[in-house]
Amino acid sequence: MPHPLSSLLLALLLSLAGPAAQAAPSLVLLVRHAEKASTPGHDPGLSAAGEARAQALAAALAEARVGAILTSPLRRTRDTAAPTAAANGLKPQVVGFEGGTAAHVAAVAAAVRAQDAATVLVVGHGNTVPAILAALGGPVLPDFCESSYGHLLVLSLDASPPRLLRARYGAADPAPASGCQ
């Protein structure tokens, strides 16, 4: 059974997204990758909790008319996006880290602006999602806590300045440490 706020969030998403075909995105959905596996190495996949969260993201966005998906090259972002991509018949666009984090953030923001889909999903990292949000004209937020995975940032680019709705999806995260979100 869907969470009662899911229907409200869905209605808001759909009302902000506008027509299905337009010249530039009007709505950007930003999430951090789901919980990663505690396997050694630089590029782990998702844990069982992360796989469940990725499915929860697809369910939360089932009616959002996601038309494009952007991820980093790391497996955990691609795995988080996979259920939503499959549900929408999309192939995520991978934006690399060439030039470092600042260059990645700028490249993602440029890639978002270049999309012709009304609604774009961006799956990033605890330090890149807030930076991408700011690069798109949204408010400046602190990096996400290491244990925070359920943030869903909904940025409406139709307003000036862009409007932000902060929501959550999937299982509850543990209480954040002091000073982080």
Helix and strand layout, with pairings?
Layout: H1 4-17, E1 27-32, H2 48-60, E2 68-71, H3 75-88, E3 93-94, H4 101-114, E4 119-124, H5 128-135, E5 151-156, E6 163-168
Parallel strand pairs: 1-4, 2-3, 2-4
Antiparallel strand pairs: 1-5, 5-6
How does this structure look, described?
Residues 1-23 form the signal peptide. This protein has one domain: Rossmann fold (3-Layer(aba) Sandwich), CATH 3.40.50.1240. It has five helices and six strands. The protein has a six-stranded mixed beta sheet with strand order 3-2-4-1-5-6, sandwiched between helices. The protein has helices at residues 4-17, 48-60, 75-88, 101-114, 128-135, and strands at 27-32, 68-71, 93-94, 119-124, 151-156, 163-168. The longest helix has 14 residues, at 4-17. It is an alpha/beta fold. Helices cover 35% and strands 17% of the residues. The two termini are 28 Å apart.
Shape: globular
Tally of strands: 6
Quote the CATH topology: Rossmann fold
Please, what is the CATH homologous superfamily? Phosphoglycerate mutase-like
The number of helices is 5
Sheet with the most strands?
6 strands, mixed
Output mean pLDDT: 89
Say what oligomer this is. Answer: single chain
What is the CATH level 1 assignment?
Alpha Beta
Question: Terminal Cα separation, in Å?
Answer: 28 Å
Helicity, as a percent range: 25-40%
InterPro entries: His_Pase_superF_clade-1, His_PPase_superfam, PGM_Phosphatase
GO molecular function: phosphatase activity
Protein name: Histidine phosphatase family protein
Keywords: Signal
